[in-house]
Amino acid sequence: MKAHTSPAIKVHLLRGAFYLFLLLSAFVIPLALGQRYVTGSSGDENTLRAPNCTTLHSQYDNAATEPPLGIGSQQFEPAMAVFDDQAADDFVVTLLPLNFFYITEVRVMGEYSQGGGPASSFNVYLYRDAPGHLPGGLIQALLNQPYTGTPPDFTIHLTSGLLDPGTYWISVQAVQNFNPNGQWFWHNRTVQSNSGAAWQNPGDGYGTGCVTWNRKNACMPDQVSPDQVFSLYGCVVENTPTATPIATRTPTPTPTLTPTSTPIASPTPTGTATATPTATATPTLTPTPCTGRCTPTPRPRPTPPQRP
Q: Quick one: which of 8, 125, 261, 306 has the fewest CB in 10 Å?
């Protein structure tokens, strides 16, 4: 005898299998996507592209031709440390959001004093831009960096840390003993880009009073050229956000509730008092009552041959 399955039972079986499939999909699909896009923290992935190396900033032009041609920026030997001085100039690098850059070469124009040189190396300092547009907080001091070239063109080889787009200050300082190698001067530029160059002499060996950063022409009025000649070569690291596919859940059918009739309570009949006839009285109904619910110290100052 063959078993017969009613159409209603088949429908219920198919519907149950469909709901089970949807339940499994809701758990399995997100787990698979989580393994595929585990690096995404906010729905996006960032793709780092190969660095694009190029000239980041250049003001290697408009070199001064009238004295003073340059300004001192030098680390002397310890016996003459009161004369250690620094010149600095600002630069701006504009990039797309999330991109960074780093510097690999600094090119400067400079000269030695009569019969001087060579420098043993160069110090390169990177500063943030402070209020008043002067060198602010020190970001990085790259000391004793090697270089190539001879006057008036020097290229300093280095690798800075990653920097965000923005305004910075760079100070280039020759490491050079005065005895016997004399002095080094960073060449002046007659055209100003951004803010004017700055200068400081922490030991005040030159007696200018500029023991902290100040505009160089405020320290020495004869420094009429506002900027320095330099350029920066480096690499841009592109950090491109890539959209991460997001799993789309299949809408789960919402079961429809079948309204069930609610039985309505039937009122309980209240007993009615039966009138007792008397010979002389009128029958009286008796109601049943209802029931309810309730500044460091300077050393002796030997004097170098010339002011910066």
A: 261
